[in-house]
Write a structure and sequence with these properties.
The protein is mainly beta. It has one helix at residues 70-75; strands at 5-22, 29-43, 46-58, 65-67. The protein binds zinc ion (ZN). Residues 23, 25-26, 28, 59, 61-62, 64 line the site of zinc ion.
């Protein structure tokens, strides 16, 4: 039997933060973006189950940022 499977199928969700942050990387003050990226295990190109979720908070200009917790993401 021929089975195609893979890791790394990604789904993302983004939302704007609620306050202006200063970015020390590009020196701009902007509302940052909180994003959630879920990586899925896929079978025959269909996502079967998520195996990794990362939450980040980043500058929309230079994409410099850091990881945040799920709770922080949901609070935004
Ligand atoms: Zn920046």
């Amino acid at each position: 039997m021929f089975v195609i499977f893979g890791f790394g199928d990604q789904k993302g969700e983004e939302k704007q933060g609620s306050r202006v942050e200063h970015c020390f990387h590009c020196n701009n003050d902007r509302v940052w973006i909180a994003s959630k990226v879920t990586e899925n295990f896929s079978l025959f190109f269909l996502p079967v189950f998520p195996y990794k979720t990362t939450y980040t908070y980043r500058c929309p200009i230079c994409n410099h940022g850091h990881q945040i917790s799920k709770e922080d993401f949901e609070r935004m």
